[in-house]
Amino acid sequence: MRRFCPHRTIRVWLKRDSGQYWPSVYHTMPSSCSCMSFNPETRRLSVGMDTGSICEFILSEDYNKMTPGLTYQAHQGRVAVVLFVLEMEWLLSTGQDRNFTWHCSESGQQLGTYRTAAWVSGLQFDVETRHAFVGDQSGQVTILKLEQDSCSLVTTFKGHTGNVTALCWDPAQRVLFSGSSDHSIIMWDIGGRKGTAIELQGHNDKVQGLCYASHTRQLISCSSDGSIVIWNMDVTRQETPEWLDSDSCQKCEQPFFWNFKQMWDSKKIGLRQHHCRKCGQAVCGKCSSKRSTIPLMGFEFEVRVCDSCHESITDEDRAPTATFHDSKHNIVYMHYEPTTGNLLTSGTDKVVKIWDMTPVVS
User: What is the DSSP letter of 244?
Assistant: First the structure.
């Protein structure tokens, strides 16, 4: 287990025969650390710092020694995300200077840079296509095609109303998951080439981390209020409908409050507009007084539905597709290790917790 601390130290903790974790070795950094990436095959630890530089270390086989490696002057501001790609020998990074950069991890040379529209807070990479997925503070996700010394814009898409706070790429299903400060998760079907986007609504606070267990087809998400949600992605999910526009209720035809002409002609007071989460129709409060969960549409909490849709939803339709767990600390970082079934969370309380997920991710 590796962690970094606000007092500028990187610490390695080893699990002893007793089952307890004890400190092995630590290194004091020249400035505060902001992010890290570890590759177990090469035991290469890449640490991003508030100054904009990235420092690398090689850990010994027994994890009792850290040997300093290259230092990259990657950014002009705080490093937000760092990602080492072994297959390409590339080190990818993003910073608060709104630059996405990639370096050669052998020589330390910068290979290229791309200027983003906003500060990048999420980064994933697909080795097969050399596509970098970049999520930023505007809520947009950008796909870039990387070459050895250049990159090209593939496409951009936006579905969040808040910042993109986490990204997770599944290369087998070719699906990208994005989490946001708007509390939602979106599953983007990149490989299907149909533009399908599935929403998952199961958090009450900012989504802080996403991990995908491909062997069980389960998505693990966490939010800053400490909740951990395990989503069953081995079900046929449905896209949420687009909200329809109308000047009057599409059920009872009562005018909405901005429809002055119909209000005057019918001598009726205008009503507030709502939308049914199942069919997307514009409805008044009286025609959408019911609430229901719609798990296959991603709504694990009760949402507004029109009366006719409420009647059509069966108990089977309401069967949950996610389980909810309380970590009992405000999570800022999460990592899942599929080989051991362990989930690591760290919180604002400066506590690192390791969870055995085998009972729920299996």
Answer: P
**Do residues 80 and 35 touch, judged by C-beta distance below 8 A?**
yes
Residue 92's nearest CA partner among 26, 27, 167, 155 is 167
Residues in the chain: 362
CA distances from 337 to 83, 220, 324, 334, 341 (A): 16, 11, 19, 10, 6
Does the pLDDT at position 2 exceed 70?
Answer: no
> Using an 8 Å Cβ cutoff, are 103 and 74 in contact?
yes
β-strand partners of 341: none
Domains and CATH numbers, the chain: 9-233+321-356 (2.130.10.10), 260-318 (3.30.40.10)
Tens of pLDDT, residue by residue over 145-179, are 999 888 999 999 989 999 999 999 999 999 999 99
Question: What is the C-alpha separation between 199 and 209, in angstroms, rounded?
Answer: 16
**pLDDT above 60: residue 31:** yes
